[in-house]
Write a structure and sequence with these properties.
alpha+beta; four-stranded antiparallel beta sheet; two-stranded antiparallel sheet; 10 strands; about 25% strand
């Protein structure tokens, strides 16, 4: 996932750039057929079974720092009040200038990095808009388990860290706009839809986090795949498709 920020004529232009695997694989070719069999990349504690060969997954079809790479770009314009005023979708060539880990990005945000601060402000505004449309955001901590030289390491990942929140909101925005674009232009894509969830009583005292998440999860309707656009209530989006993570 690559992100860019530019300030032009009082507007902030945010680019969300996704690796373009279609530059190397076409529908029905050997790579496409093998990827269809595998369905996804599988991450295991001791190894990774990739959907595409390593040469593509980690190099040619990956946004490598300092290298020109083909990308699927969603470019969004925001005014001074952070309201979306327009967008465009394009195939692009991207050269990453800085490649950051989430921890590095969090440190830069804490230090006041202006580029990341602008993205974080927009992400916060996007979440507020989605929440007003009924979206529920409940991110549990994740466990990252690795096995190396018969040694097991377990790391807790804070899914609510500023940088992870920022990237999550940018991907939701890009996927939502991709769905809107496909719907308006009659492009065949697979949409994700979800009916509004059931109402629940609010507890005076918060439950244990795991129980609270499980109780809330049960109020959501099952997410469905559809060939026609429809609302996704859990995300607070009028239409949604998954255009991101093409290598995974």
């Amino acid at each position: 996932d690559g992100l860019t920020v530019a300030h032009v004529d009082g507007e902030t232009i945010v680019g969300v750039h996704i690796a373009d695997v279609s530059a190397f694989s076409s529908k029905g070719d050997l790579l496409d057929a093998e990827a269809a069999k595998r369905c996804s990349t599988i991450y295991l504690p001791s190894t990774t079974v990739r959907m595409f060969p390593d040469r593509l997954s980690t190099d040619l079809a990956s946004l490598v720092c300092g290298k020109d790479r083909p990308a699927f770009t969603v470019e969004v314009r925001f005014d001074a009040q952070l309201n979306q005023v327009g967008y465009r979708i394009a195939r692009s060539t991207l050269r990453v200038e800085r490649r950051l880990t989430y921890d590095q990005a969090d440190d830069l945000l804490a230090a006041g990095d202006s580029t990341l601060a602008a993205l974080h402000a927009i992400a916060t505004h996007l979440l507020q808009l989605r929440a007003a449309r009924g979206a529920i955001t409940f991110r549990r901590p994740e466990l990252k388990i690795r096995v190396k030289n018969n040694e097991i390491s377990v790391k807790t990942i804070d899914s609510n860290s500023p940088s992870r929140f920022l990237v999550s909101e940018m991907m939701i925005m890009a996927n939502g706009l991709a769905a809107d674009f496909a719907a308006m232009n009659a492009l065949p894509v697979i949409y994700r839809t979800q009916e509004p969830r059931e109402a629940i009583a609010v507890e005076e005292k918060p439950l244990v986090e795991a129980l609270a998440f499980e109780r809330m999860r049960k109020t959501f309707k099952r997410s469905r795949l559809s060939l026609t656009p429809g609302a996704h209530s859990g995300l607070g989006m009028s239409a949604y498709t998954q255009a991101s993570s093409p290598i995974r």
